[in-house]
Amino acid sequence: MRVVACVAVAVALAGGTAAAQSPASPPVDAAKATPAPPVDADEPDWSFSASAYTYVVPDDRDYVQPTVTADRGWLHLEARFNYEDLDTGSAWFGYNVSVGDAVTLEIAPIVGVVFGNTTGIAPGYKGTLAWRALELSSETEYVFDTAASDDSFLYTWSELALAPADWWRVGLVVQRTKVYETEFDVQRGFLAGFSYKRLDVTAYLFDPDASRPTGVVGVVATF
Fold first, then answer.
1. Where would a tag sit more exposed on the chain, N or C end, judged by fewer CB atoms within 10 A?
2. β-pairing, 120-131 with 199-206?
């Protein structure tokens, strides 16, 4: 009986030791166990746009005016060509501000460097005031010509549009430009635009009462 008791105690001790040495769960991969850094849900994303406006100018050179923009939160960046003058580029930095609910105002004070056929510094703004289906938008700048101060000039492009539906709009447009000569210091006209997903196409007719009006077709894509 003593032999049997000794054998039973030895078996029990061996079983307990084996159980203590066996891992309760497989080893954890340290790399997988490291928590992922938290994602800031409030971090704004970048948004981009690219546009090309084709000008058909009577008795003058037809041309294309491209613009690209990049926005993130308050930051606005922009590059233009053939806007302030032909064969002239400009680079812009701005600060986005948005206020309002029923009536919304989005405005960006901007400052740019102009280079090429015209050189200078240009402060200005871009803004949109919207209420329901009615929208007033404007881009205005004053170019201080550093090569010839007498050539400093005010540029502006403003639209008042009504959008009965999300996919089309009609309205009025006004511009003052130095890129080409016209019969009027300030050009006035009509616009009609159509949108599909991220693409917007708008046709403009400036000075319709002139003998040969100026036509513009603008294509804008957003990303």
1. N
2. unpaired
